[in-house]
Amino acid sequence: MSFTFIHTADWQLGKRFGQFSPETAGELRLARQNVISQISEAAREFGVKHILVAGDVWDSKIPSNTTLRQPLAILGEASDLQWWLLPGNHDPDGPDGLWDRIDAIKPENVHSLRKAESVEIEPGVFILPAPWVRIQHGEDLTAWMAGCQTPKGALRIGLAHGGVCGFGSDAQNGREIIPPDRAKTARLDYLALGDWHARAMISPRCFYPGTPEPDRHKSGARGQVLAVTILQAGQDPKIADVPTANYDWPQQNLSFEPETAREQLERLRTNLTQGHPLRRTHVRLNVSGELTAADWRAFEQFTEEMSGECASFDVRGAGDVRLVVIAEDIEALDAQGSVREAAEALAARSNDPDLSKRDRQTASDALRLLFRYAGESA
């Protein structure tokens, strides 16, 4: 039998985004809610009925009334789809009563997986869930799956949340470790995991989909869900990545070379426009290298433009970029004045090997400011 479903995780609805302004944080929270509609479209594109959410549906075990009810209403509006929600470490099924609240108001097409027991979602298709009941419990919640019995020839889909050994988890620090061979030892046709916010393949039958709406900068990472097709029991599934994110979060590294900054910045702008529009792009730019005075002016203009055009534009490392003085820069200053004398003295200090790196950089920063003020007064 063939069965296709959507695997997603780590929605973290209600995430605060405290590093941003209240306006931007509000837009990002709304984007995480709106991504549910993109997931619905992905399911319909692949003609599937079931969406499995592998934990951390909400960012908190005590979400506000609005943060709880509005997403459930959106799920209910997609009445042609069946949503299977697993408690994770951010939203465990604990004494706070979150999942009691969910069960009391959830639409009929929304199902909470609160017990470690198999659930038949279609004839011959079983989910084996591993729900969290507290924030940390120091055990492998998937262990029970190996002993779970299902009818011969049935499809077995594990659904769990947590780290896999070798992917950054540490049991001694209280983090739950899921064995990387759990799909094999539990005879699973697929193990749908959550917790990692980036897509990762553990084995041909075990994946993290990453978050459908990213919340941090990663090189080349964009939000998606996985469309998983199991052709028959015992056969490796086919996996298709389906983009869903409203925002891009690229991280770019730029090592400046003197007198080439304009070309480098233009290439960067071109790269950044390959995804979503700039107004829906959160950029982190890590800079290093050397710039001439003219390069600095171009870089500052570029930063001002991008800060206005992008959803956010975060520049890191600018204080370590060294100013290189060329003959044209000195000649552009008042040849007879004290400004030129100061520039020559600072340029000498910025290149003095007997000075500390910090002192050379301080001289370079002062020289950059001098050129800026001299240009403004010219």
What does this structure look like?
This protein has 378 residues and is α/β, with parallel strands linked by helices. The protein has 2 domains: 3-243, 4-Layer Sandwich (Purple Acid Phosphatase, chain A, domain 2), CATH 3.60.21; 251-377, no CATH class. It is 31% helix and 22% strand. The protein is built from 9 helices and 18 strands. It has helices at residues 22-45, 65-77, 98-105, 182-185, 261-272, 293-309, 327-331, 338-350, 357-377, and strands at residues 3-8, 50-53, 82-85, 110-112, 119-122, 125-129, 155-161, 163-164, 177-178, 190-194, 200-203, 206-208, 224-230, 238-243, 251-256, 282-291, 312-316, 322-323. The strands form 4 sheets. It has a 6-stranded mixed sheet. Mean pLDDT is 89; it is low at 167-174.
Structural topology:
Blueprint: E1 3-8, H1 22-45, E2 50-53, H2 65-77, E3 82-85, H3 98-105, E4 110-112, E5 119-122, E6 125-129, E7 155-161, E8 163-164, E9 177-178, H4 182-185, E10 190-194, E11 200-203, E12 206-208, E13 224-230, E14 238-243, E15 251-256, H5 261-272, E16 282-291, H6 293-309, E17 312-316, E18 322-323, H7 327-331, H8 338-350, H9 357-377
Parallel strand pairs: 1-2, 2-3, 3-4, 6-7, 7-10, 8-9, 10-12, 15-16, 16-17, 16-18
Antiparallel strand pairs: 1-13, 5-6, 11-12, 13-14
Helix pairs in contact: 8-9
Q: Let me know the number of strands.
A: 18
Helix run count: 9
Please, what is the average pLDDT? 89
Net shape: elongated
Oligomer: single chain
How many domains is the backbone divided into? 2
Distance between the ends? 78 Å
**Structural class of the secondary elements?**
alpha/beta
- CATH superfamily membership of the largest domain: Metallo-dependent phosphatases
Instruction: Summarize the helix and strand pattern as letters.
Output: EHEHEHEEEEEEHEEEEEEHEHEEHHH
Q: Tell me, what is the CATH class of the largest domain?
A: Alpha Beta
Percentage of helical residues? 25-40%
Instruction: Identify the strand order in the major beta sheet.
Output: 4-3-2-1-13-14
Largest sheet: number of strands, sense, barrel closure: 6 strands, mixed
- What is the C-alpha radius of gyration, as a whole number of Å? 27 Å
- Unreliable sequence segments: 167-174
